[in-house]
Design goal:
The strands form nine sheets. The chain has a six-stranded mixed β-sheet with strand order 5-6-8-10-12-13, with no helix packed on it. A six-stranded parallel β-sheet has the order 15-17-21-22-24-26, with no helix packed on it. Strands 7-9-11 form a three-stranded parallel β-sheet, with no helix packed on it. Helix content is 7%, strand content 22%. It is mostly beta strands. A hairpin with a 5-residue loop joins strand 19 and strand 20. Among the domains are: 39 residues, no CATH class; 26 residues, no CATH class.
């Protein structure tokens, strides 16, 4: 049974399961003892303005304990206004309620818990107050008709899979205080066309925008300082933009250091790509199956990785595997990384043979009799 608690480490109010011994604070991420958190709330409540919220009269459709909305039972109403005084919308509180079309969350609410609105297939609009701090895991999973959502700037946490499968969502401007785009946060949002990523976000985690097949534009905000430092996205995770088939261009900012496995795999409209010198490493199959890609320019000596597990990364872990139009490559380390550019390498083969070089990478041969390429170590086979 959920009751109100208060984190004794950061002071955040939250719904806690009284049957559990311990949990993790959704605000500061630190573990706490449930009994102690309940006690902390009870001790501070008489001096806290929030205690007044418990005195509200709630509609019988709302199951409320203290200021925690445990469950909503209004199975016929289309438009729902959550009453004043609620600080926490509990786990699965509205789960599967297909009758609901709009929800108004009042000011003072701080947490939308795990799965709170999951499976509300007809939910089209939701008002989120400025007071909200956290949207928990899969909170809006499968809200198929949700078209847009305005995030307050003070929102600090949007957890994994929060909007997975929201296929009608078209545009997203993320809150300025957000630092991480969590795992699968917008996966399979097939109607999403535009995303603005503010400068405080440092990581796009795995599968964040995977299968967003309508995504056309991703705009990154970054800030450069006079001392040479910069603020902006640092890491693009594994499969982050996999199969974003309408993404025709992407301006990777100079704050990025790492691009993960298969990060842009299947972005079949992508034509040109600039890899800034800030990027230290690109991991296996990062741009595989980008079938329209024609030109790639590396500004620095970025490392490319094959991957050590052939079962996980397939037999050919080329960075640009199945990019048949990629014939224009500018990269200072092209020879030792020839394997990463199959189409380019194949196109260069006649010229390499004509010039007496290795057909695979264009390197020079060593040895008097059994000649071996000095770069890729392949024997001369012509």
């Amino acid at each position: 049974m959920y009751v109100q608690g208060k984190c004794y480490k950061c002071g955040g109010f939250m719904a806690v399961d009284g049957s559990e011994d311990a949990s993790v604070c959704p605000f500061c991420g630190k573990p706490f003892i449930v009994e102690k958190a309940i006690q902390n709330f009870n001790e501070t409540a008489p001096h806290d303005i929030g205690v007044e919220k418990a005195s509200y009269d709630y509609d019988s459709d709302f199951v409320v304990e203290r200021s925690v909305l445990i469950r909503y039972n209004g199975y016929t109403k289309k438009d729902v206004r959550i009453p004043d005084g609620i600080t926490v919308i509990g786990e699965s509180a509205f789960q599967g309620m297909n009758n609901i079309e709009s929800v108004y969350i009042p000011d003072g609410a701080e947490l939308i818990s795990e799965g709170a609105f999951s499976g509300c297939k007809n939910l089209q609009a939701i008002h989120i107050p400025d007071s909200l701090i956290t949207i928990d895991r899969e909170a809006f999973n499968g809200c198929m008709r949700l078209k847009n959502i305005n995030f307050p700037d003070n929102l600090k946490n949007i957890e994994a899979g929060a909007f997975i499968g929201c296929i009608s969502l078209e545009a997203v401007t993320l809150p300025k205080e957000l630092e991480i785009l969590s795992w699968r946060i917008f996966e399979d949002c097939t109607g999403l066309k535009y995303v603005f990523i503010p400068k405080k976000i440092k990581t796009i985690e795995d599968y964040a925008f995977a299968e967003c097949t309508s995504l056309e534009e991703v705009k990154f905000e970054s800030l450069h300082f006079d001392d040479g430092t910069a603020e902006g996205i640092f890491r693009i995770g594994m499969n982050a933009f996999k199969n974003c088939k309408n993404l025709s261009s992407i301006n990777i900012p100079e704050t990025v250091r790492f691009i993960g496995n298969q990060a842009f795999r299947g972005c079949s409209s992508l034509k040109k790509l600039l890899i800034p010198k800030s990027i230290k490493a690109v991991y296996p199959l990062a741009f595989a199956d980008c079938t329209a890609l024609e030109q790639v320019t590396f500004e620095g000596d970025t490392e490319l990785y094959k991957g050590s597990n052939p079962y996980k990364y397939e037999k050919n872990a080329a960075t640009f595997y199945n990019c048949p139009k990629l014939l224009n490559v500018s990269y200072s380390k092209i020879q030792p990384n020839y394997w990463a550019f199959p189409a380019y390498t194949k196109a260069q083969e006649p010229a390499n043979i004509e010039n007496g070089r290795c057909r695979y990478c264009g390197g020079e041969f060593k040895g008097l009799f059994d000649k071996v390429c000095s770069v890729c170590k392949n024997p001369k086979d012509y």
